[in-house]
Request: fold
Amino acid sequence: MKMKTQLINRTIIVLLFCFTISFGQMNEFSFKRNILEPKDNWHKIVLPEDIFSKISPSLSDFKIYGITNNSDTIEAPYILNELKANTTVKEIPFKLINTSNKDNEYFFTFETNPDEIINQIKLDFSQNNFDWLVKLEGSQNLTDWFTIKENCRILSINNSDANYKYTNLIFSDSKFRYYRIQFNSNVKPKLLSAVLLKEITESIIVRKYSITKSKTEINKSIKQTIVEIELQSVFPISEIKLAVNSKYDYYRPVTIQVATDSIKTQNELNYLYYNVSSGILSSFEDHNFDFETVFAKKMKVTIDNNDNEPLEIGNIEVRGNIFELTARFDKEAVYYLIYGNRNATFPRYDIENFI
Reply:
């Protein structure tokens, strides 16, 4: 009887020891949440918005632990994915078969494989400083022409203040044997090259984050418009879209920055910013600025006005890609996603080699 009691006590001690180790491993992390019982060996876990303010920006502090019925601790391997839009571009062979003009109206005609679909034409001219409205047509027989798009504006600006060229025609998928562009010009256009393309961009879901604070300041002394943006929390962001309410044409250099740290003075917090993107805010192109994902709560958009009137900035959208874990569950257990350990390093799992 005494031996039986000792055996039971030892078993209890071992179980308590395993239980303590199991939760000791979890206690290295600040946060824990249950994972819904996986129905299959492979299971996807979409990381929720509120998790990003609690983890390392390197995304290295995730673990998936399971507690079995025997109080064993097991670790489920996973692959971390950022869901990004995938764009493929196919260049379509063609021949320039006709260059003609009538008075100040010029025509360029291209022949291509009638089975090919295109949705972009990139043009390059040797001239600088032009502004033309282009009409694009398609035909199967060089006799019957159908309008694909008209009043497409292409231009070039080259002076001491700007060096900008926009000569792309973007349109819906089209399948013709012949394509013709025509426009009016006071000078003879010299076409250096043309590229016919089919671009396919996969549609993905992105998160749109609510802006809690937004302030626009016009600094006349340095001729800049500065827009400060603050989100509810730290989020992974990869795109900012600006709406401009001004109705006239414009061309302004723009820089996008995110706050990485702050210095507390006696009266306020001063934030330290670094650049994540720069480009041109133009009335001829979309106002989407994409960049590699960064974790941020505060952002700043700086627009150089030079000697122009400041633009009237409208709605601002901040978006980010979705992150997910694809995990493999080999045993029945109660699983937890744990996170929040700035000292954690990236786990190394075999499944990374067999994606």
Q: What stands out?
A: DSSP finds one helix and 24 strands in the chain. Residues 49 and 122 are 39 Å apart (CA to CA).
